[in-house]
Amino acid sequence: MDILISNSGGQPIYEQICTQIKKNIIAGELKEGDALPSIRSLAKDLRISVITTKRAYDELEKEGFIYTIASKGCFVAKKDMEFIREENLKKIEAHMREISELARSSGLTGKDLAKMFQFLEEE
């Protein structure tokens, strides 16, 4: 499992770890029951604090992507694709609200936004 960390972006490191592990789980690259690297080894590999790695794993566990077995480590939880889909839809809706507000303040119409989105999809 490759995780790439960027210090130049505005996203906190623990969120970058969470996002990348989630993507691997959703894409099927990490399967139910697969072991994740230990908190300490991931922190060492990424050259970050153990606290940061722990926070990422805690977030993933809270969201139901992984589970922990004491003295054994963290493992990929069974995927509830409907739950994951609903969570993603909520995030998309929130982003769309922001886009709508920004578009309105810039004088853009829904048709303008649709054209922009279509252009992005073609890239």
Automatic annotation (TrEMBL):
Higher taxonomy: Bacteria, Bacillati, Bacillota, Clostridia, Lachnospirales
Domain HTH gntR-type per the UniProt entry, residue ranges: 11-79
Source organism (scientific name): Kineothrix alysoides
KW Transcription (keyword) present: yes
One Gene Ontology molecular-function label: DNA-binding transcription factor activity
Transmembrane segments: none
Name of this chain's protein: GntR family transcriptional regulator
UniProt keyword list: DNA-binding, Transcription, Transcription regulation
One family name in Pfam for this protein: GntR
